[in-house]
Amino acid sequence: MNSRSRVLDALNHREPDRVPFDLGGTVVSGIHRTAYLALRQYLGLPLVEPKVVDIFQQIVQVNDDVMDQFGVDVRNVAPRSSGTHKIEIQDMGDYTCFYDEFQIGWRMPKQGGFYYDMFSHPLAGNIRVEDIQAYKMPDPLNPARFIGIADAARKAIEQEQRAVVVGSMSAGILEITAWTRGFADYFADLASNESLTCAMLDRVLDQKLKYWGKMFELLGDQIDVAQEADDFAGQDRMLISPDTYRRIVKPRHKILFDFIHRNSHAKVFFHSCGAIRSVIPDLIEVGVDIINPVQVSAHGMDPLELKREYGKDLVFWGGGVDTQTVLHGGTPNEVRDEVKKRLDALMPEGGFVFAAVHNIQPNVPPQNIMAMWETLQEHGTYG
Fold it and tell me: Considering only CA atoms, which of 329, 176, 313, 328 is closest in space to residue 256?
């Protein structure tokens, strides 16, 4: 069984020969530059300067030698997103900084910095709906965004025989709304001026529909998984109320996911960290096929319960080992125990793609990455 067949079986709730494995198939199931370089050194592989594919999180492209050695089953056919498109790194004293194509400012400390954090929001302050309508948005159809996409997808399917994951052009509709507005103003809008939030949601939604339309025109049924996201939960509860999600976000998610399903055979992969259990039935209603990262340490996100309640409707992509505590702070034996526990919960009857809970962070030792992978090889086989 080749990798693509293995993934498609899992996505269609069938048991393949083994649980598919993802490392770097998305920018939310990848590996930080620091951890990746340490892993390559540990494996005795040539030291290379990795390509950063998500500048915000410093997530790198996993090279072919690592993908082959680990038997990675998916290939990220990445567009030139807001995380890579037209980025110019600038000096800012103790920081390096850049402005993305939404004009959001990001900075990272020169000493000891691991990520870029937002520091400037183009729509902050006292604004009106007219200001949102006049705000200059990126061009979702810029030809530069799609350079090399068709060839990369064809290579992944025909030569590598891996499943193809295609990411969106930007963060989610709610996330971009928060990032352009700034969190203080964004939460105030939700409490007292929802019309501003809705105006921006609609503008980002329109961009995404145009982007995905072009992507389907270029790739058609070569896309196995279409990746979208919206983070709206914390460790123990939603960051917005479930009612707010249902009232203003859910209808727009439905438009987006219906469009993806109507125009392709791709499964909708939806990333949302944290305690999202209260809206999982809503996500199923609007067409989410795959949930990620399955944050097992968050309230209500016990994988055994999730599989029992939602395993017929959802594929779980992630949840393989907790990155908040075990993967970086545990011993290799503790990692192995955690992986076995998660496999027992999530692998029966298919519907599971193994990945760590979110990206592998810079402080994860290579010994723990190997313990994770070796345990998957030993215990992740069906039949």
Answer: 176
